[in-house]
Amino acid sequence: MQEIKAFLRFPQEHFSKPITYRLVKEYNLMINILRAEVAANKAGELIMDIEGSEQDIAEAIDFTAHEGIEFRILKSGITLDEERCVHCGACTSVCPSGALTLRRDDWSLVFAPEKCFACELCVKSCPVRAIVAVMHLNGTVLAG
Ligand code: SF4
Ligand code: SF4
What we know:
CATH topology of the largest domain: Alpha-Beta Plaits
Largest sheet: 4 strands, antiparallel
CATH class of the largest domain: Alpha Beta
Order of helices and strands: EHEEHEEHEEHEE
Number of helices: 4
Structural class: alpha+beta
Number of domains: 2
Bound molecules: iron/sulfur cluster
């Protein structure tokens, strides 16, 4: 079994199609939706944890490509270079999970990795590049 975190962007015409249902039913995937931005007659975005066999996940990715859905495997997290961080708070305003916040008493940045779902929105927001996306490979953390 394999576990991945994925970002899916649906074109507008997929609004009424049961794509996640088909991923579960036809590709035997276990899905946990972490974030959903969907609205009638608009493109939609989902971030989800997906668990399944390597083959089922590969076939599901082929299926989404065939349907014109963007499917991106997200890296497993971020690292924060505390020496580089200037505590400007820019990353906290884009973080959808609450993993990055400013401490009220001294306005210093606090990172709660257990809340992070690796959307990487904070990486580009940091003016001093204190945040780096990382992935794990056989127990080794690799910079993204
Ligand atoms: S990757 Fe960054 S913006 Fe996304 S949830 Fe994690 S800390 Fe927040
Ligand atoms: S955007 Fe960068 S410098 Fe600003 S608080 Fe976040 S990590 Fe620190």
